[in-house]
Amino acid sequence: MKQLAFIGYGKVGRCLSHHLARQSNIDRIQVYLRDLGKYRALIEASPSSKIVFTNHLSDALAGSDWVVSAVWPGAAAEVAEMAVACMAEEQIFLDLNTISAAHTEKVASLCQQKNVSFVKGAIMGGTEIYGASVPILLGGPMNERLARELSGFGLHVQGIGEDPQKPAMIKVIRSVLLKGITALLHEAGAAGEQVGMRDLIIESAVEAMTYREVGEILKLWLQDIRDQPERRIQEMDECKELLEQIGVEPIMTLASRRVFERMRDEKVSANQ
Ligand SMILES: NC(=O)c1ccc[n+]([C@@H]2O[C@H](COP(=O)([O-])OP(=O)(O)OC[C@H]3O[C@@H](n4cnc5c(N)ncnc54)[C@H](OP(=O)(O)O)[C@@H]3O)[C@@H](O)[C@H]2O)c1
Fold first, then answer.
1. Which end of the chain has the lower number of beta carbons within 10 A, N or C?
2. pLDDT tens for residues 81-114?
3. pTM score, two decimals?
4. 69: which strand partners?
5. Pocket test for ligand 1, best of 42, 71, 172 (most atoms within 8 A of CB)
6. Residue 9 Cα, ligand 1 centroid: separation in angstroms?
7. Which atom of ligand 1 is nearest to the CA of 14?
8. Fold annotation for 2-162
9. Best residue among 7, 12, 84, 97 to mutate for probing ligand 1, ranked by most atoms within 8 Å of CB
10. For ligand 1, atom 31: residue with the closest CA
């Protein structure tokens, strides 16, 4: 039988705690909330009597095999510091927040000072889309053990080694790509809107991105991009001119231009 604690009862805390409460060999999940009143309706709607709520952190963590932190990225270190102060050596602190490698290092060292086992988790998708099957990568000395146990509870978890910074880096660098695509979509969409052809432009881009399997397309683009950085710089100049003309600030467009400039400069110095 296992007992767990959750710090934070937002989207991640609710999704994972509700799933875990359905597992027969988990007998109690203690959730720490700093403001119980704010969560009154959610507490009343809690799907399981195994989930208990408290605004005393030490009560929430007492007797729990694992302590899961699912708060805001900016609060992760502060929450870890408060949590490890009332944890014992045999407990595992699992941080699921999207934090940088440097912040992960800080949380790892806080755990180390208190001899608490630390596992870094990176949630690789939205719980609103995947639900409790959201892929989670784990790093840290106990990664394999925790991955085995959480997988046994039906979570989609993969241990990727003893370095806690690894999942943090994978998640954050992947965000450079995925959030960048979202920002580009927004900028191109705004420009398309201004000229009254948003859907046509997006549909055409989707067609170019999906005429083969997406992984293959991305590989082709990465090969192709090294070829003619100068031509791409000039194309981005044309894009910048149009966006400015129609009143859309070319933020991502200029950033793309800067990337192509860097590629051109690297190519020139490699050929010298
Ligand atoms: N949602 C996802 O699908 C997803 C995907 C990938 C990664 N993540 C990561 O998972 C973490 C949780 O995300 P979420 O979507 O569950 O966030 P959320 O819905 O905004 O919930 C955050 C929870 O953390 C609590 N919290 C914030 N600061 C706190 C503090 N200093 N002390 C105690 N509790 C605190 C909040 O309590 P209050 O209401 O009292 O402020 C709330 O219960 C984030 O780090 C996020 O980057 C989430």
1. C
2. 999 999 999 899 999 999 999 999 999 999 999 9
3. 0.89
4. 7, 95
5. 71
6. 7
7. 16
8. Rossmann fold (3.40.50)
9. 12
10. 75
